[in-house]
Each structure stands twice: as C-alpha cells, then as structure tokens.
Amino acid sequence: MSDGQDEDGLAAAAKRFDGAMARLDQSLQDMTGRLQRLKRIEVDTQRLVQERARLATELDKTSARAKRLDDSAHEVSRRLVEAMETVRSVLAKTE
Length: 95
Fold this sequence. Notes:
- By secondary structure, the protein is mainly α.
- 97% of the residues lie in helices and 0% in strands.
- The longest helix is centred in the middle third of the chain and has 92 residues, at 3-94.
- The chain is rod-shaped and about 135 Å long.
C-alpha cells in the first residue's frame, strides 16, 4: 500500500469512527431522555398509588358513615311507626 492509500484508509476509518461516536452520543442522549421520562412516570405512578390509597380510605369512611345514616333512618322510621300506632291507639280509645 502506498502512503496515499494509507492516508485515505486512515481518513475513512477516522470518518467511520467519528460517525460511530456521533451515533453513540445520540444514543446516550436518547437513553437519557427515556430514563428521565421513566423517572417522571415512576414519580407519577407513586403519586397515583398514594392518591388511590387516600381515596380508598375516604371511600371506606364515607361508606361507613352512609351505613350509620341508613341505620339511623331505619331506626327513626321504626320509632315514627311506633309513635303513629300509639297515637292511633290513644285516638281509638277516646272515640
């Protein structure tokens, strides 16, 4: 090989090396961007898990309160029926 061919080969190799380095750099930038997005997704997911737990607790408390209110409404209804029956009984005796 002549010196000119060696230089051409070396220049071509350097050009390929520079291209490979540029692609590697781009790949690293892309990967860094994907890792940052992944981290944001993980943070968002953790926040959603915590929010879900809070909402589940709130729902449980609200459901328990609704049951207590429903039970109270049934008790009030039962007492009203008793009171109406008592009033009817008293009215029937006075007639």
